[in-house]
Amino acid sequence: MKLRNNFLWGGATAANQYEGGYLEDGKGLTINDVEMGAEHGKKREIHDFIQADSYYPSHEGTDFYHRYKEDIALFAEMGFKSFRLSISWARIFPNGDDVTPNEAGLQFYDHVFDECLKYGIEPVVTLHHFELPLNLVKKYGAWRNRKLVELSVRYAQTIMDRYKNKVKYWMTFNEINALFISSAPWHMAGILYQENEDKVNTMLQAAHHQLVASALTIIEGKKINPDFQFGCMLLYPCTYAATCKPEDQIAARNKLLPTYYFGDVHVKGKYTNTCLSYIESLGGKIEFELGDDAILAEGVVDYVAFSYYFSGIEGVGENIEVAEGNLSSGGKNPYLDMTEWGWQIDPIGLRNSLNSLYDRYQIPLFIVENGIGAIDELTEDGTIEDNYRIDYLEKHISAMIDAVEKDQVDLLGYQVWGPIDIVSAGTGEMRKRYGFIYVDKDDLGRGTLNRSKKKSFDWYKHVIETNGESIR
Ligand code: BG6
């Protein structure tokens, strides 16, 4: 089997890390707009208001809001077949629960999609990427509250109806499983746990609300346009057993359970034994409403999208050192190198991940995030020789092609995370760059925002031109 002829090569972004224009044309405040930038290695502070004289990276992002034409032209020059972006709910419903949508916000995305379609680039839309109108946190307690199911479905219907002839590929929640495996409930659900809160039950219930919202969105979307293709989106924490000790194998399997929890509900339409045993192991419970089972059974996905950056190990031994990752961590593997941020580089892990997901779900997969966050140094003539990026991507794409050609995994496409430099979700930094296109901006927000091509720009262009043959 070969890569499909219409393989969706491209890149992926998120509104809160890229758009900027944080209060323009009627947009409301989001949970990201109150998350401060931080010094390298420090945690970002969050309040539910904007503090004077503080720096907030999302306010300007890297200014896609004003420069989308220039950026999409550069993506087109690389030959992108697809471009993943998220919609900012607060640009459409500034408070999240407004009665009528904000026309200026809707128009912005109309322009963006038109620009993509002009170049034959397929827009791939995430409805919720670590973002929520701040008002919904203050008024309802965010995803703790069932009310968000109704409000989010109304938002989704508005979007899907408006863009029904422009967008075909949708994802509901970015890395939805990170609510369980990360320590970022703010990003995932607008939640900062209260001191006496029952964290387990809050987390399980918020996840249930998102799963019902996701299924209802799919049900409503298919009514709007039966050709819509919906995916769930998982952070895939590829995990190996630390040793051949059988208990280590169980530990590695357990590490994946919270991820399969979300994949199972989305693909199989129910809480499977994996989900139920996980709930039991936590000693938690979920409150169902009448009809929830039927909603989950009907609102299943067409494809499974996932992000892949690193792998880790798990075991019962005490000497396993922790390695970092995106919103999650795993044990250190002596066979792997790591990035400057301590994420373990494992191209074969991508092939393993594709196989594990395809074995389990047997529906098309879509890699919607992969890449390396690195410090790029400008040379004297102003260029960037990002050979480390080319090396990382080349090896991962090659492993991906092995999964398709040798293992017959059905794959829709491959998108590099942050094809243009954007703000880091985890740290708020600019110095952690993923792009083929450099943006002149630093960690304190200084810079011209000018765009320039890195060495990897032409390299990726050639990969797309040859449908991956150039690196085989
Ligand atoms: C994923 C997110 O977890 O990893 C992105 O979906 C994020 O939003 C990406 O940017 C890379 O993480 P970071 O922290 O390096 O930006």
Any descriptors?
single chain; 472 residues; alpha/beta; TIM Barrel; 8-stranded parallel barrel; two-stranded parallel ribbon; 15 helices; globular; binds 6-O-phosphono-beta-D-glucopyranose
The separation of the N and C termini measures 15 Å
The side-by-side strand order for the widest beta sheet comes to 1-2-3-4-5-7-13-14
Give the overall pLDDT as a whole number: 96
Q: Do you know the CATH architecture? A: Alpha-Beta Barrel
The major beta sheet can be summarized as: 8 strands, parallel, barrel
CATH domain fold name: TIM Barrel
User: Helical stretch count?
Assistant: 15
Q: Gyration radius, to the nearest Å?
A: 21 Å
Ranges with pLDDT <50 over ≥5 residues?
A: none
Q: Which molecules other than protein and nucleic acid are bound?
A: 6-O-phosphono-beta-D-glucopyranose
Indicate the overall shape. Answer: globular
Q: Care to count the β-strands?
A: 16
Q: How large a portion of the residues is in β-strands, by DSSP E?
A: 5-15%
CATH top level class name = Alpha Beta
Summed up, the domain count is 1
Structural class: alpha/beta
Please give the share of residues in helix. Answer: 25-40%
